[in-house]
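Whether sequence alone determines local backbone shape is best considered at the level of individual chains. Part of our work consisted of pairing the sequence of a single chain with a tokenised description of its backbone. This step matters because it turns folding into a mapping between discrete strings. For completeness, the protein is quoted in full, as a sequence line and a line of structure tokens:

_____
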Amino acid sequence: MAKQKELSLLEKYYNKFNEEHRLTTRHGRVEFSTSMHFIHKYIPLGEKIRILDIGAGTGRYSVALKEEGHDVTAVEKVARNLKVLEDKHSGVNCWPGDARNLSFLPDSSFDLTLLFGPLYHLHTQEEMLEAFKEARRVTKKDGIILASYVMNEYSVITYCFKQKHIKDVMEKNALTSDWHTKASEDELYTYLRLEDIEELNKKSGLRRLEIFAADGPADYMRQELNAMDEEEFSFFLQYHLSTCQRPELLGASSHVVDVLKN
């Protein structure tokens, strides 16, 4: 019953949310270009590799990497998103599926695995560890896994205070005494802190190579970014890329990506 409820929440959200458009907005371009920078860092120069994109959405990363000549497989749970991706006829190998069960994929098949969506929507540490277990199984030994999270402080600052929902949140008892959002099957997203991510790494057996803020201050600055001309925006991208690993900025980013070795 819980899984049906979770799926309906996902379907309802992505049926009205324009995921295809999100990463082409100014703040979305910050996230996409930063993440691609680090993906490229772990692809040997001049080589074409096998890449798995778990929770691929409508395929923004899958299609871009396929166009670079890589062998890309995409797994997506939401039927609408998967259809958008399949309709692109990009040559990406598309599968319907859940990050916690990739039984249709063989062991040790991929050089690099992206886990850029599923961890947002899993509500317990146990579920997240199931997703990591499957990602590890299908990724080659010493292969790379990039895992993305949505962060707690971003949620509290934007939803509770900037969007003025703090009174409702307090009435629902949706925050702990130290201002950590409480994960719930009634909520679409699960928000973490850096220490939560470190605990997941420890329990999953994965070793961190580096961690970066995918968008840093960009999600707080949507109007300001939209008002910039292209030269100004280019300077912002340069600034963000040079500071996206600074520890004082990581936890307040809306998305953080952990780069892990299998």
About this structure: The mean pLDDT is 93. Residues 26-41 form the longest helix (16 residues).
